Amino acid sequence: MAATSSYWTAEVADGAVMAVMSPPRHYQLASLQQTTTKGEWWNDDVRKVMADALSTGSDFQPSDANTINGQPGDLLPCSSDNTFRVPVKHGETYMLRIINAALTNGFFFAIAGHRLTVVSSDASYTKPFTTDHIFIESGQTMTVLLKARRRGHSNAWYYMAARPLATNPAAVLDNSTATAVLEYIHSPPADHADFPTLPSINDSSAAAAYTARLRSLASKEHPADVPRSVDEHMLVTVAVNEISCAPNEAPCKGPHGNRFASSLNNISFEAPQRDILGAYYRSAIGGVAKTDFPDNPPLSFNFTADSLPPELALTARGTRVKFLAYGTVVEVVFQGTTILGGDSHPMHLHGFSFYVVGRGLGNFDRHHDPAKYNLVDPPYQNTVSVAKNGWAAIRFRAANPALLAQVRSGGDKVEAVVGCSSLPEEVALAAAAGDSTSTGSGNSVVGTNCTAGAGEELQVEVSVADAGNVGERAVVSGWKRRYWAVSRFPFCNYARLYVTLA
To answer: How far, rounded to the nearest angstrom, does the alpha carbon of residue 45 sit from its chain's CA centroid?
Structure first.
C-alpha cells in the first residue's frame, strides 16, 4: 500500500501516459482532447531538495509555485508571458484530461464562466455530473467535458485556476494559485479575463462534498463488479510520525530533533537491499523481510482525538509484508490519525484499481459503518484520498500476482505478495507432460515439461488464438513481452504455470 509519494519524476517528465477507454455510447464525442497537469515548481534542483529532506529527516522544502502544464500563470511575473492557453471555439465540446502530479497537494480546479461535467476518475467511467469545480488529490486523474459557451459577446478569455487544499495548519506548503487561460478563437482581443470562484484553501468540506459525488457508471456495458464477500479484513492507520535520530544520522531536523517518518500501522517501511519478490520466489523471504505485517494497529486508541500523548508520535522502521493467495478479496480501511496534527493522505495501490466502498469522519466503527457502504456503484479508482480525521474503505481482488505496495504521501509503504497457492484453474497448469489446459479466453497452454520437480525450471509452449495474434507461439520461461509466467516454484509441491495476456 503505498503513497502517491514520489511524483518528483512527474515534474520533469516529457508527457503523460494515457489509458484510452472505449466510451459509453451515450457520451457526446468531444471535438478536442486536452491534457492539463497540476504540478509544482522549485527554484532549485528537485533531486537536491529530495536528498536534503531524506538526509536530515526534515519536511520537504515547499515548492515555489504551483503549476498548470508547467507554468505558474499570470499571477506570478516570471510566468506571465508563458501562461498555458487552451484555444476553444464557441459551441464545441472539449474533453479535458486532468492529472495531479504534485508531490502531496490536492487541488481545487475551476474555469471561470463555465461548468465541468465529470465523466471519469482514474481511467474508470463515472456517472456524469456537472459541477462548478473539481477536487483532485495527488496522484489522481479526472476526465471532464467542457462545453465552450461564452457568456455574452465581449469575453474572449477566461481563467482556469488551481488552488491547493491545506488541512494541517502546522504544515508549511506552497499556497499559491496556478492559472491558465481558456481563450476563444475568432474573438476580438480581451483586456481582462474573468476569474473563477474556488473554495478556500482550508475548505475540506468542499473537497469531501465533491468526492462523495463520484460513482461508477455501473451500466450494462460498463458494470461495477463490487466484491460482496470479503476474505481478508485490514484496518491500517495512516500517520506522519517521528523516528528517533540515530547517532550516524545527526543532526536531524524533524520535530524534537528527530526525523519525520510516515507509517502504516505504526511501521515505517525500510527498503531491503534485496528485492522482496525475488526472495519470495527463491524461498528466501526470511532473510529479506518479516511476513507479519499486522491486519490491525498494534495499539487501539482514539485515532482522531484533538490531543494525543506525545509518545504516540514515535514509530520504528521495519520491512514487513503480508501474503495474499491469488483471488483473495481484501477490504482495507485506511484510518487517518491526528498524530503531529493530522492531515489528508492520498493512498495508492500499485498494480490495482479498487472500489472505494465507504468513507467517513472520526474513527471507523467496524460494527456500524459497513452497513453504510456503497456496494452498488462505488467509484473505481487507483488513488483514494483519506480525509483528515477520517477513514476510507476499499475492496479489491488480489488477481495480479506480483509485489504490491500500498503507499501514502511521504513514501511509507507495506509490501504484499500474491502467491501461487490458489491460482485459478482456468489459467493454471499442474499436469503431466503433454496435457493441455484452456486459459478460458481462446488461448491454450501446452506443457512440454510439466513434471518438473520443485526448484526445477518449467518450460511451456504457449499458443495464442487472440485477435491480432492468431497462431503466434512462444516459449515462456519467465517474463515475456505479451505474457508473464511464473516458471520456478521452489516453495510449491509441484511445478505450476500461470500465463495471462498483458
So the answer is: 25
